[in-house]
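Putative HTH-type transcriptional regulator YfiR, Enhygromyxa salina. C-alpha cells?
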Amino acid sequence: MTRQRSDEHRKQQIRAAATRCFVRRGFTATRLLDIAREAGLSKGGVYFHYRAKEQIFQDILENLASSLEARWTFDPVTEQPADRTLGQLVKAHLRTMQDEPDEVRLQNLLVSMSVEEPAFRAKLEEITRIMRGLYANVIERGIAEGVFIAGDPNTLAISVLAYINGLGTFTVLDAEGRLPVAPELAAEQVLRMLKAHASASAVEFAAAPTKAPPN
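C-alpha cells:
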C-alpha cells in the first residue's frame, strides 16, 4: 500500500470513529481523545492527520455531501409516469435512511450546528440543494403530465423532503433504526399529497419492481 493510500485509509478510520462519537456524544462533548480511543489510535495518531475536531467534522461533511451527490445525482426514469418514478424515489430514499441511521443522525447534528456556524449552514444548504433538485425535477414533470397538482416544484419538493426527513428522525429514536411506517406506505402518502385527482390510484407504482438509483 502506498503512503498516500495508507494515509487516506487512516483518515477514513478516524472519520468513521469520529462520526460514531459525534452522533453518540454530540459535537461539543466529543474530544480528540475520545475519537482516538474509538479509532484504536493514540491522540498523536489522530493529531498527525487532524489538528482539531472541527477539521474532522468538516471532512466528514465533505465526504457526506460527495456521497449524497454520487448517490442521488442522476436522471430519473423518464419513460415511465412521473408518479411512479416519484414513488420509487421516495421508497429508495427511506430505505437508505433505515439502512444508514448514523447518516441521519449526522445530518440532524448538522442542522443543530448550522444555526451558529456559517460554514456548517453552507454545507447543509448544499446537501439540501442536491435532494431538492432531484425531487423538484420529477415533480415538475408530473405537473406537466397532469398527474400532480399545479404549484412551484421547488416548494412542493421542500414539502416532500420535510415529510421524509421527519420520518427519518424516527430511525434515530428506534433502537434498530426502523422507520415508523413502511417505505411503501410513506410513498403512498406522498403521492396522495401531490396527486391532481383524489380518485387516482396512489399505489399504482407498487406493482412494478423498484429500480434503485445507480451507485
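Confidence is low (pLDDT under 50) at residues 198-215.
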